[in-house]
Predict the structure.
Amino acid sequence: MLLPTHIPTRLHALLDTELLCSELSRRSKPASGKYSSEQLRTVGRPAYLSQDSGKEYERSALAENSGQWRRFEALYSEVFGVLARFLGEVVLMSGRAAIPGFHIIRNSANFPRYEGGVPHVDSSYLHVPAFVGEQLGRDQYSFTLLLSRENDNVGLEYWAPGTTEADAILQAPLAFVPYCRGNLVIFDSRLVHRIAPFSSELERVTLQGHIIRLEGRLVAFW
Ligand SMILES: O=C(O)CCC(=O)C(=O)O
């Protein structure tokens, strides 16, 4: 099972990350639905937050994908290049689900500390109508790229391989993986993990995505 692994990208050379983060912050909307918290905002439409049958997810995701791709094309191209080199094959962008999007976590005077996410595995392909009934290959990955400045405790916690979500609630995590701006962190989606608690005033801005194998090809979505 792939444990969280850092892969450097050329983010700093390609983009003004401060500008990118301000734009994402402006565009972001409060996340609503399952697992949302006061501080969590998104740009893009993750399947894991969708509460209905998935039809609303599909409609809004497909409506937003092309604008989002065009606006952040330089970032997506770099990330998909890095993923292809690491995984040894091309990763396609899904045309039937939301493309990888962004989490923005904003602490404030009322909510000065983000208490951390719920320990979970990433099985959000189950909420994507177009993937229902598809035969999935064994490969399943999740990735995160920190776009904002690194800060104390900004990172990921994960539990030992084989730990279930239910057990993780009662156990301490195995490790904390600090994020470093510009490094993509990739791991097996079946590893129980969560966003680590943090209390900095800086917004925590990340690009997020999942990869599955569909009809023999690696496909990224969110
Ligand atoms: O932002 C992170 O550190 C990971 C996010 C996460 O756990 C997820 O989106 O499933």
Summary: The pocket of 2-oxoglutaric acid is lined by residues 103, 117, 122, 142, 144, 156, 193-195, 206, 208 (CB under 6 Å). The chain has a mean pLDDT of 94. The helical segments are 11-14, 17-27, 55-71, 73-87, 165-170.
